Amino acid sequence: xxxxxxxxxxxALEKAVGLFWEKGYHGSSMKQIEQTLDMRPGSIYATFGSxxxxxxxxxxxxxxxxxxxxxxxxxxxxxxIEGLQAYLRAIAVGCGQDDAPPSRxxxxxxxxxxxxxxxxxxxxxxxxxxxxxxxxxxxxxxRAKARGELKASADSGRLARLLQAQIMGLRAMAExxxxxxxxxxxxxxxxxxxxxxxxxx
Length: 201
Known about the structure:
Elements: H1 5-23, H2 30-37, H3 41-48, H4 51-74, H5 80-96, H6 105-115, H7 120-146, H8 156-174, H9 180-193
Helix pairs in contact: 1-2, 1-4, 3-4, 4-7, 5-8, 5-9, 6-7, 7-8, 8-9
């Protein structure tokens, strides 16, 4: 039976995401990668070029899935602000339960922190992904403003950066394992932040 390289590549990336998400770039040895992907070293290098190449593709795949999750989440809400508030709360829950979406951005933040001084290319990739997420927030906030949900005086770009900073801080806090209740409270506090920018109409 003929092999299906694209399908195999997708499965390999999913497995790689799981490994890198748990152990990070430096914590994942080539032996662990071989065992997780069930691939020989030659096949890994032929498919992805290098460990860096595999990690870069895994990170991109991870980010794309996170973008789809955000879009699917927002589509369930008539109110942009209520959708964002629910998303922030879900992130807090996800940080307490590693396999619960939308906790996927945890890998992006971890990569940025881990690679900043050791692998500039991966750090730049992670930084670019975070910038794209911030831009997505800004677009959503602009939509909320256009619909009259947000004060006309609200600076969407500045608020998007504030949300991004809050989320990154929450993910860093989650590394301390403060417990689900503490993370949930922080998620509620982040969501409440948006109430101060709501339009009174």
